[in-house]
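Quick log. Single chain, no ligands specified.
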Amino acid sequence: MDADVTESAGTPADPDRSAADQDGHNDESQGRDESQGEGRTRGDGSSQDGPEGEGRPEEPLGSDVPAKRRHRWLRWAALAASLFVLVAAGGGWWLYRKLDANIRTDTSAAAELRVYEKERPASVVHDAENILLIGSDSRTGDNRKYGRSYGSSQRSDTTILLHLAADRKSATAMSIPRDLMTEIPSCHQADGKPTRKQFAQFNWAFQFGGTACTIRTVERMTGIRIDHHMVVDFNGFKDMVDAVHGVEICLKEPIDDSDAHLKLRAGRQKLDGEEALGYVRARKSIGNGSDTDRMERQQRFLGALVNKMQSNGVLLNPTRLYPVLDAATKSLTTDPGLDSLKDLYELVRGMRNVPTEKVQFLTVPRQPYAADPNRDELVQPEANKLFKRLREDAPVAVVPADELKRKKRGNSDSSDSTSPTPTPTYSGSNAATDLCER
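-> predicted structure:
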């Protein structure tokens, strides 16, 4: 029998124990021996227990064996659980490092902005954040098939100023038309040469001086301090749509656009990543062919993508969230303040409880440019009022364009001046809008 069993309680006493020890216990045990004599001796007076204890009852020993087996089983279970935790932690760490390494850091923009720090606007509301999202129009590499290249330069195809309220109960995404005429400051090009200050269409800022020049142009236009920026590549958008298994839209008429590589039937249908990219980039073949119509389509589709992610529990399901994060991080170039998975997680965690109807999309108030109707200009004072609301973290509301027109007609017919000042309302949509109900 092994040492663990022989040393446990209820096992036979050591037969080699000294006589002195036995004598020391005689007096104490005499009464017990006499009272139990019949049960402990044979009829001839000899002891029932042999020299090796063969005659001892088996119950104590037998009851100890299952306990020992349970102890061994528990030790193996604990060891297996520990190994599982270590493997899971190792796998989780590997995935974390992989996603973290996907993100590219734009250090040159950060350095350029530091040079012009004194001219940049100050933050007004603590904890509110303004993030500039730039859709890269680079036509190199995998993006070559989407149109002609601009050589070594690139343009911002889409620019959105995302304002996150300090209480994280709302988010407002304001699109800036690429053809909007505005003041572009003197910026440094990639080779270090400065450009001249000029009045030109907005997306030239990205071509002239990259992200830093675009940020400075937006800050001068709006007076809003840009806290962070993200440049998103075409292919990242495609992969994100595929990661959520497509987004559903409805079309009143079929689309056949060779430039956008898009051919769709009329009616309700689900777009994969490739089709979605063509849909949000198509211009001449959908609607009135204007950039304004395209921006509104982009906003509605982004809202549907956000809604799909929240309604399907993607943000709370690690197995479904990983492909989305992988696609997103591969396509991102950010400032040093958002260049880690931890930073992005904190940003997403702050937004995941925002109701979809409070994720709003609108376009800066604009109209055809007087000198060239193919370009846009700001509508004042409406544009400055919107900038002020976002700068001060004040609420804004959005409704579809046709509904806004009805509201304006109704307000002009009303003479009631005693009602409190309403929240400014702009033409736009929110993430809860169903694209098939419009």
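Residues 59-102 form the longest helix (44 residues).
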